[in-house]
Amino acid sequence: QTRLPLPPGFLFGTSTASYQIEGAVTEDDRGPSIWDTFTAEPGRVVDGSSGAVTCDHYHRWPQDVELMRRLGADGYRFSVAWPRIQPSGSGPVNQAGLDFYDRLVDALLAAGITPMATLYHWDLPQALEDEGGWLNRDTAYRFGEYAAVMADLLADRVTHWCPVNEPNVVTLNGYGEGTLAPGKALTYGAIPVAHHLLLGHGLAVGALRSAGAAQVGTATNHLPVWPLSDDGADHQAAAVLDTLWNRLFADPILLGTYPEGLGDAMPGPVADDLVTISQPLDFYGVNYYNPLGVRAAPEGSPLPFELGEIPGYPTTDFGWPVVPEAFTDLLVDLKERYPAIPPIIVTENGASYATGPDEHGVVDDQDRIDYLDAHLRAVADAVGRGVDVRGYYCWSLLDNFEWADGFTQRFGLVHVDYDTLVRTPKRSFDWYADVIRAHRAGTA
Ligand code: GCO
């Protein structure tokens, strides 16, 4: 394994999310979340599955920490299930829920792994959704209170924090399109959700700072939007989607402003809120998977754009095009568009390939290795072009519950047999361990 040209001290990690791996959804007084509700509705998840058991990480976490120790990764990004901490989204905290994360963090530290905690990876307490969820400004305040609880518990040991995972996906897919929980198809009616999630982010940043958290950042999904032809209409459609998908969430945090025209669509004292939203951060977390192809929608469509396939690239089992150079361009573009951007950490990147164990129990996922290798090189290229990237967290440690795609997509470095819950490290796991080791040896 040759060392990748990444800076000394570069953090290599893996990423997961509570609802996708924990299971045990009724245990120890965890309250119901919008994902429990959503997955119980027929037709929402392709294979009819849910996160009720998934990887059973809630019980098997010592084994998973041991896997990470073997991997030799510096960091681990996990998320806290809000309904374990406050079963109905506000008020008294549930000690058993706190204890789970307290033990997990101690075990990570004992294994030499730096914890990074996400506070909201989509499992909103159902009780808050019943009050309007993220359409309701109060949810942002409840989130700030919950963030303060977690900061008080863990800021002495957890160095890295991501308040909200991918607010764009929650807004546009959860409330705009309805393909993710809570499954509301409000189209432009979802726009206030963006503002409340951003306000929640800002309130959480404040709470984390007050508790002395060392590194506060984001986990922002960025998909470069590519027009599918040279046609002016397709370019314009791409600009609209780029604004809604990327800039609507990055501009307020990094510039303290909304893209033109969108500020007026936001509810509440927007100018004051933007001060809260744009507080300085220690890192900017980027989740990158692929570019999106877009063309103008036919006359009379509810939205001005339409997604389409980008020809000419290999695809993952999810059908997502594999375009590592778009990752380099994205990182360079972020630096150009937002000159004051803090250091970047790649908080997610990875690929879905279904490869399972062969007759010898070996999971030979060469296509995942190729994907990860090319994308780590794309990061190195961005560093070479002057972008300050400090870490890379692979999605994901384990195969897990892939939202509306249930168990049909596997992103793990470790294979999970959902009948026996046996974990089998894939070849990509050993490859990643080698990359990390070579980097340390070469930069020591
Ligand atoms: C996220 C992601 C993950 C997904 C991964 C693959 O929002 O952080 O959606 O939860 O599992 O991106 O789709």
TrEMBL record:
The gene coding this protein: bglB_2
Record: active site: E166, E348
Reaction equations catalysed: Hydrolysis of terminal, non-reducing beta-D-glucosyl residues with release of beta-D-glucose
One Pfam family recorded for the sequence: Glyco_hydro_1
MF (Gene Ontology): beta-glucosidase activity
Cellular component, GO annotation: cytosol
A single BP term in Gene Ontology: cellulose catabolic process
E.C. code: 3.2.1.21
Protein's name in the database: Beta-glucosidase
NCBIfam families: BGL (TIGR03356)
Positions that bind substrate: Q20, H121, N165, Y289, W395, E402, W403
Enzyme kind, highest EC tier: hydrolase
Organism: Cellulomonas chitinilytica
Family, similarity comment: Belongs to the glycosyl hydrolase 1 family.
InterPro entries attached to this UniProt entry: GH, GH_1_N_CS, Glyco_hydro_1, Glyco_hydro_1_AS, Glyco_hydro_1_beta-glucosidase
Keyword list, A-Z: Carbohydrate metabolism, Cellulose degradation, Glycosidase, Hydrolase, Polysaccharide degradation
